[in-house]
């Protein structure tokens, strides 16, 4: 990371000049260190899902300046295991319609045509990524638009990057048992008796589908529990308190790329945010799971995951072999 920090400082000095106010230089370095969250997050997603051979940003400082009238360099270039190189423009919008002005889209497409590469759009909408061909944008009154429901139907994130949807089996979860060692305080309230105990964990266990005890799960399989919003239940006795964190019957599905956010958020302190720029520069995007795809397959075999869905687009792209 030291070389990367040096590059950041060099970029800022080149932009602001060596005589710039030190506080302005420091603030610009901090801003660049935060990166471009949407682009960095999408790079992290593709890198982590396991089917990406190469993905990187494209320098958009075009020269000569007149070239901007005809061409717009997209945000990323990527090569997946099942495709040649593709160009990707990244957007993060919270409205259900993504819109491109005709001249902007035209310049993006002109650049893609010159390089003879497919032009794709990566769109993050309320935490869910889609990746689709630009040809699915349709002309409205003025702009070229796509609705979110159309984008997700045409998403290539599964067949290119390896994304899947999955569901933790109902009853599967983590169980912690605490032994009561010393009563520290006791107070009568309108709601009953409040007690404060000194306790220690004397048992950690796991269950698979239906609450079946399963203490021989793979480490990556147990880590999958941190990607799920498990329901909490407590069981109290005179000697112990047991906390049960289990998946419910009515829980929905989870995309693999959303699981990455949970894994990265797990070790963070309250109020701390994921630094996606740092994540994509580490040797491994996450340190607590070695291979997400293999973990899901093992979890299916060990009955911790109930179902895995491999999504295909409504319209199969010409540049991806079947």
TrEMBL record:
Q: A Gene Ontology MF term for this entry?
A: crossover junction DNA endonuclease activity
Catalysed reactions, as listed in the record: Endonucleolytic cleavage at a junction such as a reciprocal single-stranded crossover between two homologous DNA duplexes (Holliday junction)
Q: Which Pfam families match?
A: Hjc
Record-given protein name: Holliday junction resolvase
Give the source species. Lutimaribacter pacificus
Q: What is the lineage of its organism?
A: Bacteria, Pseudomonadati, Pseudomonadota, Alphaproteobacteria, Rhodobacterales
């Amino acid at each position: 990371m030291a070389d990367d920090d040096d590059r950041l400082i060099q970029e800022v000095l080149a932009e602001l000049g060596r005589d710039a106010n030190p506080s302005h230089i420091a603030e610009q370095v901090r801003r660049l260190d935060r990166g471009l969250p949407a682009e960095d997050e999408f790079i992290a997603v593709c890198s982590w899902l396991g089917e990406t051979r190469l993905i990187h940003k494209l320098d958009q400082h075009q020269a000569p300046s007149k070239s901007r009238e005809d061409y717009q360099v997209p945000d990323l270039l990527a090569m997946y295991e099942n495709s040649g190189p593709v160009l990707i423009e990244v957007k993060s919008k919270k409205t259900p319609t993504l819109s491109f002005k005709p001249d902007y889209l035209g310049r993006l497409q002109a650049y893609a045509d010159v390089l003879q590469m497919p032009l794709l759009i990566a769109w993050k909408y309320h935490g869910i990524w889609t990746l689709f061909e630009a040809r699915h944008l349709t002309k409205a009154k003025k702009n070229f638009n796509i609705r979110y429901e159309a984008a997700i139907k045409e998403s290539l994130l599964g067949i290119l990057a390896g994304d899947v949807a999955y569901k933790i089996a109902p009853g599967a979860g983590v169980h912690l048992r605490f032994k009561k060692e010393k009563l520290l305080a006791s107070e009568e309230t309108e709601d009953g008796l409040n007690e404060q105990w000194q306790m220690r964990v004397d048992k950690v266990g796991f269950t698979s589908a239906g609450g079946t005890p399963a203490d021989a799960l793979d480490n990556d399989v147990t880590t999958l529990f941190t990607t799920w919003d498990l329901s909490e239940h407590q069981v109290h006795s005179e000697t112990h308190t047991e906390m049960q964190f289990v998946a419910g019957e009515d829980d929905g599905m989870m995309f693999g790329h959303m699981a990455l956010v949970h894994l990265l958020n797990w070790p963070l302190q309250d109020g701390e945010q994921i630094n996606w720029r740092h994540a994509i520069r580490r040797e491994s995007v996450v340190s607590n799971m070695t291979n997400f795809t293999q973990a899901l397959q093992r979890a299916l075999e060990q009955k911790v995951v109930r179902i895995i869905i491999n999504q295909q687009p409504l319209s199969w792209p010409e540049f991806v072999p079947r």
